[in-house]
Specification:
266 residues, alpha/beta, Protocatechuate 4,5-dioxygenase, Chain B, 9-stranded mixed sheet, 3-stranded mixed sheet, 12 strands, globular
């Protein structure tokens, strides 16, 4: 068992210095509006460099402040950018680290995941993966101490991802975070049109309308949509922007969205 999974993109996607990182995350979260609705059970947040997508990610994480003393574990899923594989991959590490400290992994929940079809241990899928790592400093700053169940999603059907999420869904002690950017490398006008349509599909809980051209994390997103539709949950858009809003050239932008899932009344 690898003892720790160390940061791969600290100092590039976000500050590698503890104090600078904490200050940046605090400023981003403090600047984001907080909705009047109840805190979400799940969020979808982007995973690009903080100067580009951090404000949009903060729109999701700002909603979680009221859960600081409630959430004890976080189920975190995102797409694989570097290693092709089928199914979902957990990690053999005992903890994931960032400049803000170490987050222990939930070994019991990991074993539950491994008992499900298509879930394997694949440390190579986690080693360089930024889609999960970029969410961690936000979670650490907003929630404080918690246990983590990180899973990289490869080639997996929505039903398969949904089955894993359902098995780990838990109660108020569990938060689900799905990592995904939206459209890639279109001009600003095209990106806004595509991303607006994707946001409508996400709100409609329609995985059939969210493909790789709409979101790089379409597989983890669609798993959440499939489960939300089956269980009667509701997803709303919190923020929708692109890298052009943060100063990137408008001829070639990446889209970012933040979304919150409210559980159906029991």
């Amino acid at each position: 068992m690898a003892s720790q999974r160390h940061p791969a993109v600290a100092g590039t996607f976000y500050p590698g210095d503890r104090d600078s990182l904490r200050r940046m995350v605090q400023e981003l979260v403090d600047s984001a509006p907080v909705e009047e609705a109840s805190p979400p059970k799940a969020v979808i947040a982007p995973h690009a460099g903080y100067p580009f997508s951090g404000g949009v990610a903060a729109a999701a994480y700002a909603q979680l402040a009221a859960l600081r003393d409630q959430v004890k574990r976080v189920v975190l899923i995102g797409p694989s950018h570097h290693v092709p594989f089928r199914g979902l991959a957990v990690s053999s590490a005992g903890a994931f680290t960032t400049p803000l400290g170490a987050i222990p992994l939930d070994g019991e929940a990991t074993e539950t995941a491994l008992s499900l079809p298509g879930v394997t241990t694949l440390d190579a899928a986690h080693a360089r993966e930024h889609s999960l790592e970029t969410q961690l400093p936000f979670l650490q700053e907003v929630l404080g101490e918690f246990q983590l169940i990180p899973m990289v999603v490869g080639d997996a059907a929505p039903e398969q991802v949904a089955g894993v999420l359902e098995a780990l869904w838990g109660g108020p002690e569990t938060l689900v975070v799905v990592s995904s950017d939206l459209s890639h490398f279109h001009d600003d006008a095209t990106a806004r049109e595509l991303d607006t349509a994707t946001a409508r599909a996400i709100e409609a809980l329609d995985p059939g309308r969210v493909g790789p051209e709409n979101a790089c994390g379409c597989r983890p997103v669609n798993g959440l949509l499939w489960l939300a539709h089956r269980q009667g949950h509701r997803i709303t858009t919190l923020d929708l922007r692109n890298s052009g809003d943060a100063g990137a050239p408008p001829e070639r932008v990446v889209g970012y969205g933040a979304f919150a899932l409210e559980e159906a009344a029991q």
